[in-house]
Amino acid sequence: MTTLTITALTKDFKGTSVLKGIDLSMRSGEFVSLLGPSGCGKTTLLRCIAGLESPTTGTIEIAGEDVTRLPPERRHLGMMFQSYALFPHMSVRENVRFGLRMAGDRSRAEQRELAGRALERVRMGHLADRMPAQLSGGQQQRVALARAIAFEPRVLLLDEPLSNLDARLREDMQVELKELHHTLGLTTVFVTHDQEEAMSLSDRIVLMNAGVIEQEGDPSDLYSAPRTPFAADFIGAANLLPATRAGAIATVDGTSIRLPMTGAGPDGAGQVVLRQEDLRLAPTVGADAPLDVEVVARVYRGADVVYIVSLAGTRLRVVRPRHEEQIDEGKAGLGWREGAVQWIGAA
User: Fold this and answer.
1) Which residues of 51-80 are buried (b: 16+ CB within 10 A; e: fewer)?
2) What DSSP state is assigned to residue 126?
3) Is the pLDDT of residue 265 over 90?
4) Domain of 186?
């Protein structure tokens, strides 16, 4: 069953086109991330779904109902934004109850019951009588999430809700969001610029660029089969090399370096895609590392080490586990995992 359908949606601000004909549908219970850099239109799209912005053209349907011109309070949506917007003079329980109270369609006893249930779901029931100032950032985030789910919305909208948390807490909250989604089965639209966040949480990723959908699919599809240079570079920060393809072999432009391609593709100009973790770096050139490169720098990241190497004047990044033999700066050999060399033809 389709819960959310967006058709030919555009949005202009003072003559500038921010959304350029978005078509998107979401199945009931699906977790979809709108991913992209700042200014790509993902938050504007979310605000149009929420009713906080009016689209210039196009339609938005929720559960078969055209809500394009309905105010936010009539769309039956749960919303949580980067700023948690908790009322400092209200207790945790009253913050969660606020939306239910404003809706005015439930008794006070039912409002308190729903608020309490939502707080238990985010493991905050024991702090229901505290004030927001007495909570940590992560606890405030949970309260805001409880408020968003308290009235059992048709769609849950999340606009970069984890961006204010430190790295460790952000990882913990990703797990909690995943578990909560599995438990509640809410159709969820999640906006983020963090590709790792989108990869870990989503059933489907919608990658946006300059007001259009660049590519969409499940996380593994976007990672393993990018269709554009932008998609390859944004999802996983791949190494891209201009090349010319003939059959199953691509020759890197300006060199004699020949690389075997993965999958079919048209002959002609394009780019080779080499994922950092799919490359092999060895102290010397050999059968598994046939290309001459120079190691120019390395960056220790704890779990792994990133090596910056120069191949025919082009800088590439290679990721190796920290427990593998350290390779010093200077001459080295470069290879790749079988089947790892991808191809993107010129548009």
Assistant:
1) bebebeebebbbeeeebbeeeeeebbbbbb
2) G
3) no
4) 2-224
Which ranges of the chain would DSSP assign to H, the alpha helix? Answer: 42-50, 92-103, 108-121, 137-149, 167-184, 195-201, 219-224, 229-234
Place of tokens 């033999």: 325
If DSSP codes are grouped into helix, strand and coil, which group holds residue 87?
coil
Is the same domain home to 205 and 323? no
Please state, in angstroms and as integers, the Cα–Cα distance from residue 135 to each residue in 84, 161, 211, following that order. Answer: 12, 16, 38
Do residues 263 and 218 share a domain? Answer: no
Angle at 26 between CA 25 and CA 29, to 5 degrees: 170
Query: Does residue 197 share a domain with residue 252?
Result: no
Task: Summarize pLDDT for 207-238 with one digit per residue, the tens.
Answer: 999 999 999 999 999 998 899 999 999 998 89
This prediction has a pTM of: 0.90
pLDDT in tens, 87-120: 999 999 999 998 888 777 788 889 999 999 999 9
DSSP 341: -
- How far is residue 242's CA from residue 249's CA, in Å, rounded to a whole number? 13
The terminus-to-terminus CA distance of the chain in angstroms comes to 35
